[in-house]
Specification:
- The chain has about 120 residues and is mainly beta.
- Helices cover about 0% and strands about 55% of the residues.
- It is built from no helices and eleven strands.
- It starts with a strand and ends in a 10-residue tail after the last strand.
Length: about 120
C-alpha cells in the first residue's frame, strides 16, 4: 500500500511505510537523470539498490552501487543519487530522524531549476 507519492523531474518516490522516527520510500530514477545535491538537517538516509546501478555522492565520496548494495547518507552531509545507465534505477530509501517532512531538503545544486529549499 502506498501512503504518499510524488512525481519528480528525475522519476518518482512512493512512501511505503512510516512511523514517528522513520520513513521507507521506493525511489525510481529514470536513465540519465539525477536528484538534486542536497542536505537534511534532521534526518539521515540509507539507500538500498533493488535494480539498476546507482552512482551516489555522499560528501566527498562517490560510490557506485549495484543490486543488493547500500550506502548511508548521514544527517547534514551533502548527497545525491544519479542514474548514469540506460535502465531504470530502483532504490529503497530508509529515512531516520526526528522530522521527516519534504521541507527538510536544502538543495545545493539542481538540474531542473527548482528553487533551493531552506529551513
Amino acid at each position: 500500500m502506498v501512503l504518499d507519492f510524488e512525481h519528480r523531474p528525475w522519476g518518482a518516490w512512493y512512501v511505503l511505510d512510516q512511523g514517528d522516527l522513520y520513513k521507507v520510500k521506493r525511489i525510481e530514477v529514470q536513465p540519465g537523470k539525477r536528484l538534486s545535491l542536497q542536505t537534511h538537517e534532521r534526518r539521515s538516509e540509507h539507500w538500498y539498490v533493488v535494480t539498476g546501478v546507482a552512482t551516489c555522492q555522499v560528501g566527498e565520496d562517490t560510490v557506485v552501487l549495484h543490486k543488493g548494495e547500500s550506502v548511508v547518507a548521514p544527517r547534514g552531509v551533502d548527497h545525491r543519487i544519479s542514474n548514469l545507465h540506460h535502465e531504470p534505477l530502483l532504490i529503497i530509501e530508509g529515512q531516520h530522524g526526528d522530522y521527516l517532512g519534504e521541507d527538510d531538503i536544502c538543495r545545493l545544486e539542481d538540474d531542473y531549476g527548482r528553487t533551493p529549499v531552506s529551513h
